[in-house]
Amino acid sequence: MKRTAIIACLLSTGVLASCTSLIDDQPAPTHTSGQEGADVVDASSGADASTDAFHFASGDLEIGPFDPEETLPVLFDPCKEISADEFAAIGFTTDGVTIPAHGGQVLGCGLESDSVAPFPDSIVVAGLLASSKEVERQARMQEGMSSTVLKNAVVVENRPFDGTACGSYVETHRGTLWVEVSNGRSGTDLFSLCNQSLEILENLYKI
């Protein structure tokens, strides 16, 4: 997957682009993830296996309400905080390079896989400095799609609303964790794209 395709996805996607408007009156995030010399954030909050959280080697990413207007967190950075081994365990590889957008309010990570067929144009896992309500206002809910594995997961069709992009997401204490699958050329139907994005999010939860 070319990085230019991933960057185009991050910059052109309506939901991701909307994040900027959420914190115009707040100071910029102080983290430097995705920049040279950046340190990996310790995501651990002391949660154990019974906590409703994503359990990564770098620490636990707890699921729960998020309000960027009340709290400016250290945004979750998938490329830095999900290891290559963990991505490999769910069938993906990544170059490990964070793709920041909108002043660090979006931290994206492009994935590749030989096992996903037909292969989408791009798969992006991202941390968004946006609440679930804000995402819902910018996208189209996919009624009837839900997860028995991750009860708080939401599935939406994303802009440009032409059946080529679908995202699944869940709020965490460090922003919204977002998985988008898009397919502008090979014609995979929207339902399949949505299933792929939800499956990736569920698999990250099951690590």
UniProtKB/TrEMBL annotation:
<dbReference type="InterPro" id="IPR024520">
    <property type="entry name" value="DUF3558"/>
</dbReference>
<feature type="signal peptide">
    <location>
        <begin position="1"/>
        <end position="17"/>
    </location>
</feature>
<dbReference type="Pfam" id="PF12079">
    <property type="entry name" value="DUF3558"/>
</dbReference>
<protein>
    <submittedName>
        <fullName>DUF3558 family protein</fullName>
    </submittedName>
</protein>
<keyword id="KW-0732">Signal</keyword>
